[in-house]
Amino acid sequence: MRFDVLTLFPRIFDGYLGESLLHKAIEAGLVQVHTHDIRDWSRDKHRKVDDRPFGGGPGMVLQVEPIVDCVEAVSRQAETAGRLVMLTPQGRRLTQSVVEELAEEPRLILLCGRYEGFDQRVIDLLQPDELSIGDYILNGGETAAMVMIDAVVRLIPGVLGDEQSSVDDSFSHGDRLLEFPHYTRPRVFRGLETPPVLLSGDHQAIARWRREQSYLRTEQRRADLLPDSTESATGTTSDPQTPTLSKDSRDEPRAD
Ligand code: JBE
């Protein structure tokens, strides 16, 4: 899979691309990431790519010409034109199902903005898929693009080792439950014990305990993720039933 990142600050990506999982994926030829400096497409002798907004107001706006030139030139650098994504707080939310969709693409072109944003005609002309990683204002789309690349590459076959499969992740396969708690040695630390079931060797009991813990955590922390939750609409927690829960665990005190 090929990523092209269009940015005013290409060096922001160097550290991230040179480390860990992504570095290995690039070395293995599974992922290619090309960064492009939008200023290279400026027609101005000072490499200027922004200007003051028509109508007045604070901040600067990224100009339509260098951005459109940059996107069109970069798009032509490979056989597949690629899906154009703009990282912007105005976009639809990046969720795991959107990440799964993006991971199917052979090529993504990521457009990162700075300042107050892009001239509207960039969007009208190029019709990018506008995506947001969350409801907070970042200084630019670069960190959002890194988040997106990070989430997408781990779904590319071969990027994660067998022992680290993404199949069991929270949020994968639409079952949207949080992770159960994990323990490793030592068994006891400062009086805090590992739940005995995890040491029982009873794989069925362990699987049952983990499902219950996932469900309880989700109910307590993120009830909005549960299937028949009314939380997002009304702010109240629904009382979903699930076949994976024993009666005992359903009777546990609730956090709400
Ligand atoms: O989420 N985003 O894609 C953003 C991009 C630029 C600024 N703030 C954001 N939240």
Task: Give a nutshell description of this structure.
By secondary structure, the protein is of the alpha/beta class. It contains 9 helices and 10 strands.
Walkthrough of the structure:
The chain is built from nine helices and ten strands. The chain has 256 residues and is of the alpha/beta class. It has two domains: 2-153, Alpha/beta knot; 174-251, Orthogonal Bundle (Trp Operon Repressor, Chain A). Helix 4 (96-102) links the parallel strand 5 (83-93) and strand 6. The radius of gyration is 23 Å and the shape is elongated. The two termini are 44 Å apart. It binds 3-nitropyridin-2-amine. Residues 87-89, 132-134, 136-138, 140-141, 144 line the site of 3-nitropyridin-2-amine.
Would you list the SSEs in sequence order as H and E? EHHEEEHEHEEHEHEEHHH
- The 3D shape can be described as elongated
Q: State the strand order across the main sheet.
A: 2-1-6-5-8
The chain-level mean pLDDT equals 89
CATH superfamily of the largest domain: SPOUT methyltransferase, trefoil knot domain
What attributes does this structure have?
2 domains; 10 strands; 5-stranded parallel beta sheet; 3-stranded mixed beta sheet; alpha/beta; 9 helices; Trp Operon Repressor, Chain A; binds 3-nitropyridin-2-amine; Alpha/beta knot; 256 residues
